[in-house]
Amino acid sequence: MPGRVRAAQPHGTGPSAAAGTKTLTGSRARDAGPPTTRNDGVRHLFAAYDLARDHLFGHVKPRKKRTQFLEFCRSLRTLYPADVRIAIVCDNFSLHLTTKRCRRVADWAEANNVEIAYTPTNSSWLNRIEAQFTALRYFALDGTDHRSHKEQGSIIRRHIIWRNRHADDACLRKIVSRANVA
């Protein structure tokens, strides 16, 4: 079924983890595993976690480039008064970094009372949002098979809304605290 969007599954889970292979027919064949083509590419989640308010923000975008990152940063800046300094913690993904070639991120941050902080290389687990991604995968993505990116994006957005309204949910807290190592 070309064009289906299967959420990434943790290593060793899902249909592809079964021992051996066999040919499936009928409706089971449609659910047998990820498609071999992705006609519409992938989508990217830009997300932020406000530690003080225990609030998650997220935007699903078709591209993950510096322009979209700055667009997301600008939207975060509008959530707080201009005199309040905000810190955005990022991993070392290249579009987050400020380089000699492109200072757009650093110039924007300096002009808008924003500090961009980076986790050390191979240490994204230090970023508190990573535990929120574990909960997102658990509640909204594991084992799913969406017909379109629009449907998948809708489920992600609905999870973020639910998560913000139910931040004290016992199951959510258990998953987040288990994933939090920092």
UniProtKB/TrEMBL annotation:
Coiled coil: none annotated. Residues 34-147 form the Tc1-like transposase DDE domain. Pfam families: DDE_3. InterPro entries: RNaseH_sf, Tc1-like_DDE_dom. Residues 1-40 are annotated as: Disordered. It comes from the Bacteria. This is Transposase.
